[in-house]
């Protein structure tokens, strides 16, 4: 072929020696940078080059800021000999000069090491695996109570940093000191692409700018770009390339433009990317494993399955719920006892082990519920149709059926795959109305009343055993049907029927946990909730003490009892506040494999064993539990991965990560919608209660909106008030006014858009009145449209 003779081969390499060799042999060779710069038709490609030239970068001051990272071989030697400790670096959201390292391994003594100051953080980034050296005891510090955000534009302002570091070192008693260290090297970087905004350089025509990530735990990143003016005011993605010793910030490059800041679609995309939530549409490979429509139950499906379509089964869910996982029934037996059934969608019938659909569901791990969007774990055909236990259609289920006496004591339990036909899909409110109505006595209502009566007994018994009833302010938005903007915001109301469904779900989960652990002692997937270390409760005990109440925390039972007793006739909301604070003291509940752990206890539920069985449409853990249970009762066959405890432990690790991220993404979504709400609402004043006191701020909760926020008392360019912080009580004295946890205050709430990247709800104190601090209710705030003024100033 003659065309082939005209093909010119060019060699692209960043390896100096390789390039020289190629040129010697007459092959045209270029570095990546030289080649991309030659493509004059696509100038934007230059921005995407990783920044390689760490040395000789003219903007970096010659001054060495950080100490050198030790090579990996030295780190490994040091870790082996115990000179260094290996752990995960966790940056603080509240203070950019502070971080903690969670040490890997079983040593209880130095589980958590605190790092303070730029030089000790030594270029580690959130989630990196680092090696730290413990400092001598006389250099140990206490976690600071100061809230510090990196707002400097000028990166050579190191004197200012040093002054800020001095603020951290506060006089404290010996008790507060924690093991303190410094980063000596990086074992593994865990960088990812970061979402955020460009802080355009003030220097005209400059190509170098700072990028501010949306996640406050990530440092700013210096990037080179020729499109700064088009990227201003937009959400972009940037990747880190490296962090030289003489640079205050890491270097990186531009990856992608996501869209206009504040735009609902863009912000949702940012939120999903930042929390690593897989949200791409399901691929064809995944969808190819879905059943063909129209679908109906066949004779083959009924093999190893009981036909329970005659039972009076119904589901009770929140309004608008389309992914109905569970349904219930209750009927009296001829012997006078009651039969109660929990019927769960048989998702594992449709998702077979190891295929693309199974792998994708396992990767996603959980459905993520945002304020107006649901990111499904399984495709919609299953989640909202074939697996959803809607009324008046035949559906496949996995049933857990108990025989109980009227005192809710379990006499027998059996598990079976089944076919059901739900007679009603009710909301919590509709179910409650039926239970309370004197006029209704049909089968469904009778079944609901039986369930409700038993649930009350079960709950009472659970609480007597020491289960905790904690509280978290949950918020509901009422959306405008046209614009989908929030028009009202209120805390969720819980009914008796919420509790009724919850009791039977807990009971089913516990019954299934016992069964799969009996059958598979080494590889049951269980869920545990560790008891918090006593130090976690310090804040709760001190806060209660400041209101003359005693909270005992030696066991879950004594905590539950003292929370029940802690009430004040003059301050009814106090008990809720204590429960909200107690929730903050808790550890995270986690999935684990029974063969890899010996502590199974669930602290919050006061149960010796627990798992998740009742929500397989939205949690992958439940699918595995269904598979284990199906093998245990002979309704399905096993497969190698199901009985491999190491594979199961890896799966649990991913599930725990996905669940945590889903929770954070949900919170971020609520925060964004709350901002939209206050943007249209304007400035409001509301009653609030103090949850925490800090050194220069108070953190408050506004019950009306279930909203939390910080009131700062030191503001830039304003005279500093006299602040005295006492960590023992804890209290904060401002001029002559003392604030304690749970004190009632009045705050003004408004949206502060002066920082487009982190638009935030800003709170200022209205009452009690402190001269120079409190603001009158009706003062308009000038700085709300700060960006406009800044822009004008730059244009001048």
UniProtKB/TrEMBL annotation:
It holds the Pfam family OB_Dis3. Its main location: nucleus. GO terms for cellular component: cytoplasmic exosome (RNase complex); nuclear exosome (RNase complex); nucleoplasm. Keywords: Acetylation, Exonuclease, Exosome, Hydrolase, Magnesium, Manganese, Nuclease, Nucleus, Phosphoprotein, RNA-binding, rRNA processing. GO terms for biological process: nuclear mRNA surveillance of mRNA 3'-end processing; rRNA catabolic process; rRNA processing. SMART domains: RNB. It comes from the Eukaryota. Residues 777-796 are annotated as: Disordered. It is found in: Nucleus, Nucleoplasm. The keyword Ion transport does not apply. One of its GO terms (molecular function) is 3'-5'-RNA exonuclease activity. Its cofactor is Mn(2+). Component of the RNA exosome complex; within the complex interacts with EXOSC4, EXOSC7 and EXOSC9 of the exosome core complex (Exo-9). The catalytically inactive RNA exosome core complex (Exo-9) associates with the catalytic subunit EXOSC10/RRP6. Exo-9 may associate with DIS3 to form the nucleolar exosome complex, or DIS3L to form the cytoplasmic exosome complex. Exo-9 is formed by a hexameric base ring consisting of the heterodimers EXOSC4-EXOSC9, EXOSC5-EXOSC8 and EXOSC6-EXOSC7, and a cap ring consisting of EXOSC1, EXOSC2 and EXOSC3; DIS3 associates with the base ring of Exo-9. This is Exosome complex exonuclease RRP44. It comes from Panthera tigris altaica (Siberian tiger). The gene is DIS3.
């Amino acid at each position: 072929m003659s065309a082939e003779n005209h093909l010119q081969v060019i060699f692209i390499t960043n390896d100096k020696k390789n390039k020289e060799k190629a040129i010697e042999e007459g092959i045209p060779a270029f570095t990546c940078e030289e080649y991309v710069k030659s493509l004059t038709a696509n100038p934007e490609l230059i921005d995407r080059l990783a920044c390689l030239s760490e040395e000789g970068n003219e903007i970096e001051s010659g001054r060495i800021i950080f100490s050198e990272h030790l090579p990996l071989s030295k780190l490994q030697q040091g870790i082996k000999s115990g000179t260094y400790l290996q752990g995960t670096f966790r940056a603080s959201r509240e203070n950019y000069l502070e971080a903690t390292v969670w040490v890997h391994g079983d040593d209880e003594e130095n589980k958590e090491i605190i790092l303070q100051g730029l030089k000790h953080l030594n270029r580690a980034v959130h989630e990196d695996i680092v090696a730290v050296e413990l400092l001598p005891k006389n250099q140990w510090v206490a976690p600071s109570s100061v809230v510090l955000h990196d707002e400097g534009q000028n990166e050579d302002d190191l004197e200012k940093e040093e002054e800020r570091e001095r603020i951290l070192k506060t006089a404290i008693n010996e008790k507060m000191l924690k093991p303190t260290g410094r980063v000596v090297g990086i074992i593994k970087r865990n960088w990812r692409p970061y979402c955020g905004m460009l802080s355009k350089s003030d220097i005209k025509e400059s190509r170098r700018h700072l990028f501010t990530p949306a996640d406050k735990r990530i440092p700013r990143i210096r990037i080179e770009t020729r499109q700064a003016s088009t990227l201003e005011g937009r959400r972009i993605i940037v990747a880190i390339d490296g962090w030289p010793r003489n640079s205050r910030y890491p270097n990186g490059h531009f990856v992608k433009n996501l869209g206009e800041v504040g735009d609902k679609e863009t912000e949702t995309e940012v939120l999903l990317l930042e929390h690593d939530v897989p949200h791409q549409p399901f691929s064809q490979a995944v969808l190819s494993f879905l059943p063909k429509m129209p679908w109906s139950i066949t004779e083959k499906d009924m093999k190893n399955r009981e036909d329970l379509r005659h039972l009076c089964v119904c589901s009770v869910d929140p309004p608008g719920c389309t992914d109905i996982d569970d349904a219930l029934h209750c009927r009296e037996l001829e012997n006078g006892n009651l039969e109660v059934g929990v019927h769960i969608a048989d998702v594992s019938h449709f998702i077979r082990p190891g295929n693309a659909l199974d792998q994708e569901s396992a990767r996603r791990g959980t459905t993520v519920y945002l304020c107006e969007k649901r990111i499904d774990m399984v495709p919609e055909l299953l989640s909202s149709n074939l697996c959803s236990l809607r009324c008046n259609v035949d559906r496949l289920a996995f049933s857990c059926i108990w025989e109980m006496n009227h005192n809710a004591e379990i006499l027998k339990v059996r598990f079976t795959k089944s076919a059901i036909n739900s007679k009603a899909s009710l909301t919590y409110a509709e179910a409650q109305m039926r239970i309370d109505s004197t006029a209704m006595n049909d089968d469904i209502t009778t079944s609901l009343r039986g369930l409700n009566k038993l649930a009350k007994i079960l709950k009472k018994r659970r609480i007597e055993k020491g289960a905790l009833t904690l509280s978290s302010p949950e918020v509901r938005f009422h959306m405008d049907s046209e614009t989908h903007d929030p028009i009202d915001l209120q805390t969720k109301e819980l009914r008796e029927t919420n509790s009724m469904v919850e009791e039977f779900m807990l009971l089913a989960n516990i019954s299934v946990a016992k069964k799969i652990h009996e059958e598979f002692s080494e590889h049951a997937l269980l869920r545990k909730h560790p008891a918090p270390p006593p130090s976690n409760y310090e804040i709760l005990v001190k806060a209660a003490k400041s209101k003359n109440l005693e909270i005992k925390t030696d066991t879950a039972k004594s905590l539950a009892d003292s929370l029940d007793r802690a009430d004040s006739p003059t301050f009814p909301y106090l008990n809720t506040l204590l429960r909200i604070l107690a929730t903050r003291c808790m550890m995270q509940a986690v999935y684990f494999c029974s063969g890899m752990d010996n502590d199974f206890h669930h602290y919050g539920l006061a149960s010796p064993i627990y798992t998740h069985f009742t929500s397989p449409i939205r949690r992958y853990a439940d699918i595995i539990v269904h598979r284990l249970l199906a093998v245990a009762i002979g309704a399905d066959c096993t497969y190698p991965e199901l009985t491999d405890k190491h594979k199961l432990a890896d799966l649990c690790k991913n599930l725990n990560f996905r669940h945590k991220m889903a929770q954070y993404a949900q919170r971020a979504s609520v925060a964004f919608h709350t901002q939209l709400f206050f943007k249209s609402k304007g400035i409001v004043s509301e009653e609030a209660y103090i949850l925490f006191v800090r050194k220069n701020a108070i953190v408050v909760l506004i019950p009306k909106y279930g909203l939390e926020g910080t009131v700062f008392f030191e503001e830039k360019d304003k005279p500093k008030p006299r602040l005295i912080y006492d960590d023992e009580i804890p209290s904060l004295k401002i001029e002559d006014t003392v604030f304690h946890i749970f004190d009632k205050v009045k705050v003004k709430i408004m949206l502060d858009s002066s920082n487009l990247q982190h638009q935030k709800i800003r709170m200022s104190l209205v009452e009690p009145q402190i001269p120079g601090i409190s603001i009158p209710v009706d003062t308009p705030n000038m700085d709300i449209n700060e960006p406009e003024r800044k822009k004008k100033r730059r244009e001048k």
